[in-house]
Amino acid sequence: MKIQVVKNILDANDRMASDLRDLFDKKKIYVINLMSSPGAGKTSLVERTILALRDRYRIAVIEGDIQDTFDADRVAALGIPAVQINTGGACHMDANMIREALPSVNLDAIDFLIVENVGNLVCPAEFRIGENAKIMILSTPEGADKPAKYPLMFQESAAMIINKTDLLPYVDFDLVKAKTAALGLNRNLSIFEVSCKTGEGLDVWVQWLTDKIDAFRK
Amino acid sequence: MKIQVVKNILDANDRMASDLRDLFDKKKIYVINLMSSPGAGKTSLVERTILALRDRYRIAVIEGDIQDTFDADRVAALGIPAVQINTGGACHMDANMIREALPSVNLDAIDFLIVENVGNLVCPAEFRIGENAKIMILSTPEGADKPAKYPLMFQESAAMIINKTDLLPYVDFDLVKAKTAALGLNRNLSIFEVSCKTGEGLDVWVQWLTDKIDAFRK
Fold first, then answer.
1. Distance from CA of A97 to the nearest CA of B (A)
2. pLDDT over 90 for what percent of chain A?
3. Does the distance separating the beta carbons of A152 and B39 come in below 8 Å?
4. How far apart are CA A218 and CA B195, in angstroms?
5. Sheet holding A59-65, edge to edge
6. Phi, psi of B170, rounded to the nearest 5 degrees
7. B79-95: average pLDDT
8. Is residue A143 within 8 angstroms of chain B, CB to CB?
C-alpha cells in the first residue's frame, strides 16, 4: 500500500512534468535540471555557466533549497533573474514546485532555464520537472564508487560533470574507474572533467551545452 | 493528504524505533546511526573506529546501501560481523529495515552496533532507528554553508565529525564558520576534526565514543 502511494505520487508528477515540457517547448526554452550531492559544486557550475553564456542566451535560474536563499543571491549577483524555491524540508524538487515558481519567471524573456536541485544524489533523480536534460555533478572527493552505489542518478542523466579536478593530486579518486562505472550504467552519458575553481575544462562543457540549446531552438 | 501519509509513516517509524531502543537497552548494546552526504567518509570512519575499539568492545555493523555490498565487504575484512541492508532505491534507513536485519545479528554477542546509513544529508535525519546517538560527518570539500542549507541533520546529531582535514589547504572551507553555524543550530553538538586518511584527530573522537559507551553500559 505504501508502494502504491509512492507510485501515484510519481505518476502525478510525470503528468505535470509533461505539461511543463509542453509549455517550455512552446516558449522555446531549454531547461536543465542540475543535481549532485551536497557541496559537489552545483552553484559554482551555475555561476561559471552563466558567465560563459549570458551574452549568448537570456538565462533564468530556479534555485531549490530546503531553506535559505544563499544560492539565489549568488546568481542574482551576476545580474540573472533567480527564483528561490524553499522545499520546507523536502529532499528534492518536483514538477509542482516548478509550476508554482513559474509566475515569478518571465517565460517570454528567456531562452535557457537552469534548475538547481536540492543537494542529494538519490531522490531528485526520481522526479521529472519538465527538463530537456538532467545534468549531474560528481566531485572527486566523493570517490569513484558512487556510480555503483547511487545508480539511478547516473542512469537518468544526459551528462556527468566530474568537478574539482584540481583536487585530484590530493584525493584517492580513480578517474578511469568512475567513468567506466558510469558508462556501464548509461552508455549515452556525456562526461566532462572540470574544475569550477580554476576554470579548467569548462569550455568543453559549455560547447556541449551550447550545441544542445542551439539544436533545440532552431 | 500527502502530508498525512508522511506523518503516519513517521509516527509508525517512531513507535518501532522505541521498541528497538528497548531491546537494545535490555541487551546493553550501544547503537550509533552514522550519516553524511555521499563520499564524506562514513565507511572510512567505521573502519578507523573498529580498528581503535575492536579489542575493547564486541562490535557489529549494519550497512545501509541502495544496492551493492562494497561497504559490508570492507567491514567484514576487519573480522567484524557485517549485515548488508539493500534499501532497493530508498534514500534512507528506517526502523523496520533494522528490525528485519536483527535476526542476522547475534545480540547476545555484541556491545556496540554501528549502523551506517545511506549517503544523504537530508532524509536519514527524519527516521529514528533505535540508536543511542546520531553521528554525522561533514567533509571539508562540501563547504561550510552546509549547516545553513541542511539544518535538520545538524539539529538531530549528537556529534559532528569534520572529516578530510588533510584537504584543508586545498579547499575553501571555513572551519570557524562551519562550527559556529552548526552550534547555532545545536549548542549541544560535540565537534571533532579528523582525517580518516592520515588518522589525525581520531583519538579524540574515539575517546568521546568510549566514554559514551562505558557510561551507557555501566
1. 15
2. 91
3. no
4. 51
5. A82-86, A59-65, A112-116, A30-36, A133-139, A159-163, A190-193
6. -110, -5
7. 92
8. yes
Give me the helix-helix angle, B42-53 and B202-217, nearest 10°.
60
In this predicted model, what pLDDT tens digit does every residue of A145-177 receive, in sequence order? 999 999 999 999 999 999 999 999 999 999 999
* CB–CB contact A66 B5 (8 Å): no
Chain A residue numbers with beta carbons less than 8 Å from the beta carbon of B164 are 141
Per-residue confidence (pLDDT) for residue B2, from 0 to 100: 47
pLDDT of residue A55: 97
Please name the residues in contact with B128: beta carbons below 8 A apart, sequence gap of 6 or more: B13, B14, B17, B18, B95
pTM above 0.90, yes or no: yes
Inter-chain CB proximity B38 and A148 less than 8 Å = no
- With CB atoms and an 8 Å threshold, state whether B141 touches A143: no
Decide if pLDDT at A193 tops 50. Answer: yes
- What lies within 8 Å, CB to CB, of B13 at 6+ separation is B94, B95, B96, B127, B128
For residue A45, which amino acid is it?
L
Cα B166 from Cα B198, distance rounded (Å):
7
Q: How far apart are CA A21 and CA A27, in angstroms?
A: 10
B142 contacts chain A (CB < 8 A): yes
Residue showing cell 542566451: A57
Helix (H, G, I), strand (E, B) or coil at A127: coil
Q: Are B181 and B148 in contact (CB under 8 A)?
A: yes
The ipTM value here is 0.90
Mean pLDDT to the nearest integer, B125-153: 97
